[in-house]
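User: Could you go from structure to sequence for me? I need the amino acid at each position, not a summary. Structure tokens:
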């Protein structure tokens, strides 16, 4: 069996967590390679619901779970999450969880900056999760971040903190935020260091030795292609690369390690936060999708914006991430609609586009061109066989497949782990 990279193909919350948990049964290692605790992945197994922000979803199945170098990690949030899922009965030990020693920390000052900037931006805000993710990545590429490997060397840490504060002090003053002292930050870090130390390892070595031993690796994407800092609806994006190409960089393996790229695609479209959304429905249909789909953020509880399926966006994601197959999630949410619409192109003035242009102004100006498809009255919630889907639902899936240019390997029909229609096994090769 080869490796699989799971990527969100819209604006996040496609159901990546559920799919990872289901695939993890046959994987040996699960790796997070970007993002931070802005992610919210929900997994439902029987009566238990697990919500992960930082922990790879493989921990539910007790698989070796790696938080790679590409992730920015808030150590306090991580420790809280570990405690929370331990209370639910999961075992999180250094045998199960590895944290890359070269990963960068998200600090309280990053959260302050994120929240203060958003508050100042007023109508121009991004609608971030407020977790400090953007400012933490800024410090990473600015070469002044604190990394986990720095925590063990208190003598050298002082100078690193000074360097970081030299950048942040004027920013904080400008935003009216209280001063952070070097001694205060050093004390905070000294308290947290021994708690995370047992999990620290050169994660790239652990991963590469697993690969050499022929182990099967699942790369768990967070966010999604349209939130990618290069390819998304910039500046209404997250601050990391979320596309499949990042799996290798953010984990420390060669590009071939990514294996089969599996795109996770919701049967309609949602987005949390601000930014262009050509197929958004602000009418009762959008409301109905939100209610039926329980579209409230796993992480922040915010109401998600909803709209019809946008094949243009997903086709673009298929190209940018090299998606070979797709899991179409939440098909059950579409039960009971008389007709369904699917966006097949955009109108921009007198032009017709088959892609989302890069310019924000154009992204905000495009009008969706819809194709109408018949809906179905039957209940598909929990259906596990293709033959159990009504013909109109089968046609909807097949039409999406043709429009996006990738096979639908799997359809999901409820939050439950086993409520899955397997059409083609993503582990079965073909790459
Ligand atoms: P992620 O961020 O991509 O992991 O997705 P989230 O967990 O944030 O959001 C997906 C939500 O949809 C979660 O509450 C899942 O339990 C739920 N979900 C996943 N698959 C299905 C499905 O096929 N049908 C329904 N009704 N809900 C699903
Ligand atoms: P998962 O992994 C949906 C969105 C935020 C905001 C933008 C920037 O659960 O799919 P950030 O805090 O990252 O600087 O916010 O990105 N966003 C997500 N939306 N799902 C996510 O993760 C998201 N992570 C960030 O709402 O619009
Ligand atoms: Mg989510």
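Assistant: Here is the amino acid at each position, in order:
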């Amino acid at each position: 069996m080869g490796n699989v990279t799971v990527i969100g193909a819209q604006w996040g919350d496609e159901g990546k967590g559920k799919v990872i948990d289901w695939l993890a049964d046959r994987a040996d290692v699960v790796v997070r390679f970007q993002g931070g605790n802005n992610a919210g992945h929900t997994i439902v197994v029987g009566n238990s619901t697990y919500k992960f922000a930082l922990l790879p979803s493989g921990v539910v199945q007790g698989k070796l779970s790696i938080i790679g170098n590409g992730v920015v990690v808030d150590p306090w949030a991580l420790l809280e999450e570990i405690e929370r899922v331990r209370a639910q009965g999961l075992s999180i030990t250094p045998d199960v969880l590895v944290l890359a020693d070269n990963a960068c920390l998200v600090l309280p000052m990053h959260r302050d900056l994120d929240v203060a900037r958003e508050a100042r931006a007023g109508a121009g805000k991004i609608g971030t999760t407020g977790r400090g993710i953007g400012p933490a990545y800024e410090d990473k590429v600015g070469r002044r971040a604190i990394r986990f490997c720095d925590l063990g060397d208190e003598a050298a840490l002082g100078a690193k903190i000074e360097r970081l504060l030299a950048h942040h002090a004027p920013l904080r003053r400008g935003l009216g935020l209280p001063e952070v002292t070097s001694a205060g930050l050093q004390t905070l870090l000294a308290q947290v260091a021994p708690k995370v130390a047992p999990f620290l390892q050169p994660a790239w070595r652990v991963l590469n030795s697993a690969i050499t031993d022929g182990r099967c690796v699942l790369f768990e994407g967070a966010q999604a292609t349209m939130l990618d800092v290069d390819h998304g609806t910039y500046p209404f994006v997250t601050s990391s690369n979320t596309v499949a190409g990042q799996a290798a960089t953010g984990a420390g393996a060669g590009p071939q390690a990514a294996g089969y790229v599996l795109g996770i695609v919701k049967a309609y479209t949602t987005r949390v936060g601000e930014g262009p959304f050509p197929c958004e429905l602000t009418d009762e249909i959008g409301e109905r999708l939100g209610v039926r789909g329980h579209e409230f953020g796993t992480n922040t509880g915010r109401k998600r914006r909803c709209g019809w399926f946008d094949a243009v966006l997903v086709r673009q994601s298929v190209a940018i991430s090299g998606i070979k197959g797709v899991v179409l999630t939440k098909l059950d949410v579409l039960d009971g609609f008389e007709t369904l619409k699917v966006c097949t192109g955009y109108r921009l003035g007198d032009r017709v586009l088959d892609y989302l242009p890069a310019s924000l102004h154009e992204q905000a100006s495009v009008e969706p061109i819809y194709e109408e498809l018949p809906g179905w009255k039957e209940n598909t919630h929990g259906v596990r066989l293709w033959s159990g889907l009504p013909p109109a639902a089968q046609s909807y899936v097949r039409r999406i497949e043709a429009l996006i240019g990738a096979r639908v390997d799997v359809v999901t029909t409820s939050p439950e782990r086993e409520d899955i229609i397997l059409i083609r096994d993503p582990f079965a090769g073909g790459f």
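One structural detail worth keeping in mind: The domain at 265-428 is CATH 3.90.170.10 (Adenylosuccinate Synthetase; Chain A, domain 3).
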